[in-house]
Recover the amino acids of this structure.
């Protein structure tokens, strides 16, 4: 886990972005830890930070960066992070069952017509015949941990194709990438800003789209501690306002493409501070633009997709069968669908 902090300052936005002032004075200079991954899919947090949307709500934000979803859930439960954006995992659901965390909104979604997460094959597996998801039977499928979103996606894809795969837990995204490129695992699924650059080299091939198997998949959610959700409503609403503004800016520039070319370029440069920052801008630019997926407007949450995920975790015996949607989700903050 790494941290990055900056105190921002910005005047109130005008027009539709301006929101009611109620509760804001009480939040002045409130320190806030936001959990994230260095993925384009976490762009709402980065935009809200860089453009002062957190600051205008009274927050002094510090990012805590993680390598996988489950450690982030633990950080929320322990108080090391206040709010986070990540995929639903078995660890998160189990912490919700213990009364430690709550999902309060949606972030990244698969959407028809927008290029989404890819199914990948190693070159060795591809040359041996793994040229489509139908050929996954008996193959080694990389995941970070058992009960991760990668486990969920791989299992649903395999079930749809009527095959069985061997899941190989490798703990970190970087380790999964290394194993795929060297042929230690055969397949994986990942967001397009990572998938496409990998497939540009000789070691990895794209063999399918996750959206063909999981349409309208709620890929990531916004979550916090049960204490924040239940007792810190003004603060939680303010966080969601800031994230929603960040998501709106991101969608306009890179998904709907309703901004000018200059504004789009500004957005890509902003995201590059956090995504593929170890690469020169020109080398990272294409993957950021081509990897843009829809961020939920107003942090709306697709509860139908979340319910499917919860049902899968229960059916696999990865979480208790007594856990309900009310255990996992506080649906009072955002629009649900």
């Amino acid at each position: 886990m790494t941290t990055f902090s900056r105190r921002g300052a910005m005047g109130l936005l005008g027009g539709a972005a301006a929101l009611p002032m109620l509760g804001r004075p009480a939040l002045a200079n409130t320190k806030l830890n936001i959990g994230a991954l260095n993925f384009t899919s976490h762009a709402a947090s980065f935009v809200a930070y860089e453009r002062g949307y957190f600051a205008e709500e009274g927050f002094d934000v510090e990012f805590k960066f993680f390598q996988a979803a489950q450690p982030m859930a633990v950080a929320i439960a322990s108080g090391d992070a206040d709010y986070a954006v990540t995929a639903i995992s078995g660890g998160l659901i189990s912490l919700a069952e213990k009364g430690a965390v709550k999902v309060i909104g949606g972030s990244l979604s698969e959407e028809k017509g927008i290029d989404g997460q890819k199914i990948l094959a190693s070159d060795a597996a591809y040359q041996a015949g793994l040229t489509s998801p139908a050929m996954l039977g008996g193959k080694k499928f990389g995941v970070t941990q058992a009960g991760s979103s990668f486990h969920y996606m791989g299992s649903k894809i395999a079930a749809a194709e009527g095959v069985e795969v061997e899941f190989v837990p490798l703990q970190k995204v970087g380790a999964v990438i290394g194993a795929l490129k060297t042929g230690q695992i055969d397949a994986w699924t990942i967001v397009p800003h990572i998938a496409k650059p990998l497939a540009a080299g000789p070691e990895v091939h794209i063999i399918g789209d996750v959206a063909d198997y999981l349409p309208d998949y709620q890929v990531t959610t916004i979550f916090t501690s049960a204490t924040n959700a239940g007792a810190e409503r003004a603060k939680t609403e303010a966080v969601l306002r800031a994230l929603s503004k960040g998501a709106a800016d991101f969608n306009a520039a890179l998904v709907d493409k309703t901004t000018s070319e200059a504004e789009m370029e500004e957005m890509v440069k902003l995201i590059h501070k956090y995504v593929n920052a170890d690469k020169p801008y020109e080398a990272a630019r294409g993957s950021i633009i081509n990897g843009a997926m829809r961020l939920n407007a107003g942090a709306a949450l697709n509860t139908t997709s979340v319910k499917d995920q919860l049902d899968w975790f229960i059916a696999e015996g990865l979480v208790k069968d007594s856990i309900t949607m009310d255990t996992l989700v506080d649906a009072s903050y955002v629009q649900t669908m």
Q: What stands out?
A: The chain has a mean pLDDT of 90. The first strand starts at residue 2 and ends at 5. The two ends are 33 Å apart (CA to CA).
